[in-house]
Fold these 2 entries.
Entry 1:
Amino acid sequence: MVVLSQPAFDHVSLIEAYKPTTLFNGIPVVDLSDPSAKTLIVKACEEFGFFKVVNHGVPLEFLNTLEAQALKFFNMSQSQKDMAGPPDPFGYGNKRIGPNGDVGWIEYLLLNTNPEIISHKSIFILQENRENFRCAVNNYIKAVKNMTLQVLELMADGLGIEQRSVFSKMLKDERSDCCFRVNYYPPCPELQALNGENLIGFGEHTDPQIISVLRSNDTSGLQICLKDGTWVSVAPDQNSFFINVGDSLQVLTNGRFRSVKHRVLAGPKKSRLSMIYFGGPALSEKIAPIPSLLAEGQKSLYKEFTWCEYKMSAYKSRLADNRLSLFEKD
Ligand SMILES: C=C1C[C@]23C[C@@]1(O)CC[C@H]2[C@@]12CC[C@H](O)[C@@](C)(C(=O)O1)[C@H]2[C@@H]3C(=O)O
Ligand SMILES: O=C(O)CCC(=O)C(=O)O
Ligand SMILES: [Fe+2]
């Protein structure tokens, strides 16, 4: 074992000796132009709460432009970036995730997707480049949101729900509570000396919203937890999107879809850059199973709550907590 003394390695709390994970080649791939997409989506949400989307229709130019703009941001000096933080929860964050003491080997920008709030102070510190950045974020979010609405409609269709817009209308609502996150995991060269140990970039958690749509650069690091509790690595694919079922969708489907536990490990050589669109409903939206998904006599597994109540409770929790357990019926 190599023992590194302080200050050579002062991020000890982020080091974890996880069991080695294998690259999983069973991640479902859904081609949005394929007529069987709706069936595949439902199967993937039941089995994994996670799938990859190809033929998504989002111009690759939007992905690459935003990546370049985000790198410009993260390559600025630390003092400049600090002017855009600390997150409240929006803005620039460095190592601290959320308000309750969680940390990771990460820098990020968290933005509200409401177009007026995209003019958050974090964008203003970009000075002469802010219009380019704002435009790249807006183009990306608009296109990704459209694709997400399509996926949600296929989901409803695949579940046999008469009202195809049952999920998508929650995001279409002008009061919907969606946010956007750009995560940057810098390389950590000292990691090479720590044989077999892992550096936590973003600790294990489920996403509280309905759906999360992730795109990353070509650097690995994302892992998901399978039904049997095994953690597996997801091969990066910079031209595709990865969809996560969030806690709220698990409730809307009365547990038929599962919100996927996931985490990110940082690497020694390459930086990872990911962009995640989190689709949440209006604060007043009631989160309860869609009635037609309940078989006769079947009851909801969850107590009634609104997205506002769930979100407030989530923000009091630690990242790895099972946030839904507070809302499960006894
Ligand atoms: C530790 C926390 C960070 C988080 C809010 C929370 O209290 C628990 C949920 C976390 C999470 C996970 C998914 C998204 O990245 C996020 C923005 C969200 O909505 O819930 C984060 C929150 C955050 O980073 O503020
Ligand atoms: O950065 C990633 O790849 C995933 C991060 C994540 O899960 C999140 O921001 O909620
Ligand atoms: Fe997440």
Entry 2:
Amino acid sequence: MASKDAAAELQIALVGAPNCGKTSLFNALTGANQRVGNYSGVTVERKIGRTRTPAGFALAVIDLPGTHSLRARSPDEAVTREVVLGQRADTAPPDLIVMVADATNLRGALRLVQELKATGRPILFVLNMIDIARHRGIRIDEARLAAELGLPVVASTAVRRGGMEALWTRLDEMIGAGLPAPRPGAWAEPSATSLRALQREADRVLAAAVTAPPRPRTLTGRVDGWLLHPVFGPIFLLALLFAMFQAVFAGAAPAMELIDAGFGLAGELVTRVVPDGLLRSFLVDGIIGGVGSVIIFLPQILILFLFILLLEDLGYMARAAFLMDRIMGAAGLHGRAFIPLLSSFACAIPGIMAARVIGDRRDRLTTILIAPLMTCSARIPVYTLIISAFVPQKTVLGGLGLQGLVMFGLYAAGIISALGVSLAARLLFRRHEAAAPLMLDLPDYKLPRLKGVALGLWQRAWAFLRRAGTTIFLAMVVIWLLATFPLPPEGHTGPAIETSFAAQIGHLAAPLLAPIGFNWQIAVALVPGMAAREIAVAALATVYAVAGTEASVAMALSSQWSLATALAFLAWYVFAPQCISTLAVIKRETGGARWMWVALGYMFALAYLAAFLTYHIARAFGA
Ligand SMILES: Nc1nc2c(ncn2[C@@H]2O[C@H](COP(=O)(O)OP(=O)(O)OP(=O)(O)O)[C@@H](O)[C@H]2O)c(=O)[nH]1
Ligand SMILES: [Mg+2]
């Protein structure tokens, strides 16, 4: 049965311009939860989902990166072309191309569909976002459009319940009637002349089938008048980012206290039930203390993601890219680097993958190399821990929280150094030609969809907790073992940890780290912290918990570290490549280990230098 189904399964490829709603359609067709966002370049890989039509036909639906033309210019667009042309070994050639068009913006779609027709594959033309088109009074004569194109045409609203009925029906009709076998289409890259001819034909079809009312000024236009204003726009962007970091700090406090109290209670409970000894130390110091010290940052991470998800859905991201283009261009960065870099605030891994939208190899490489300097969410625990231990909780400059201000400064340090590295790379590569002009689709503003934002938050929360329960948990077990054994000999005075393997390892590394003000406890935290940044926090928590009597890791730090050490530690974490997964992705996306080593080397060098300077300058100022 299953094998018969697999044989009968039809391959359906979703093709269309960026941001026309392909992934929304994919999710609606297959019940998947792939990432959707109101900007171009959300999808950079091919994704396959399986489903059944109402009449029971089995489909394998392939979601693809958006492209304006099969004349692919960047790695993500190349994926789309290869799948459409059946050139990929890992994907069967499509039996049907579902050409997704944004009904409010048909001009480009009508050109792309002609390129697709030349491939000889059966096509269904979908007018997506028909809700918005109707709302704007755009009238599309579907029958006429179908006649002009010589293709079946159907309208859809991918994000509404019931918005896909016509599409399902049409799919069943087409499959039921038997899809035409693909004609042996010989696709050749169209020349500029032939593309112009295709565009003329597209304009003719557009004029024949679509009437749009003259649009005086849409809401998007009016809002953009302000948000893209040369002076007001950047001020707004800066204020927005600033508000975001204040919110991350101030907004999360109550929830964090709650989680802290929860873990405190759990610790007390275990202390009461389990007799003093190794088991209690393992449970309280290793597991509850270590893992708890990381989980406590969940609220902050969620607030940050809430901002990012809302901005993505609203359609502000591409505007921010537009505003930053001048500054980024001056630093030798391609305008399209903005969204990959912005994604890196969440995590460098999706950010590095998003760099696939950049066509030029050197531009892409530079973006990949600096993406890890953006402050990813795994740094939040590290930063927050140090800030809450060393920066007083007071307001300055009339109401701004000092802690939030320092956090903002750390983010700024990451951004500024990324621009600096990019500039240095540009000078080193000796490239003087002007950067390519930024061709950016500015999507219309849309109200964020609650369900999508909630889903996005849930996915982040789950990923974070899963990491805490697996990677970080395992690391904690190892660190607790290292910090506990071998047990001190009889008659040993002073903290037991002094005789442990951890202390031995730490002392071994200490001379290397002494010039930057790090003690041996930090050395112990840095080594496992290579795997993932949060582990350093958990490791510090465990090492100090095993060693001592302080109530919390923050209190232990503030009593044991000098301010200079704390600042040097922050400076280290702005730069240090403490994340194996990021390095692995750099290797994969650049197609070799070389650039991974370059990233590793330059980031460690910067980290050491920054920590060294910070430590000595802070000491000179008496910290
Ligand atoms: N109102 C309305 N919004 C839609 C519709 N389809 C998609 N959207 C919204 O349009 C935006 C883009 O949707 P995506 O599904 O990410 O578009 P995509 O074509 O996959 O984009 P890329 O992966 O960047 O090429 C999101 O904000 C969606 O919520 C629709 O039919 N109606
Ligand atoms: Mg997509």
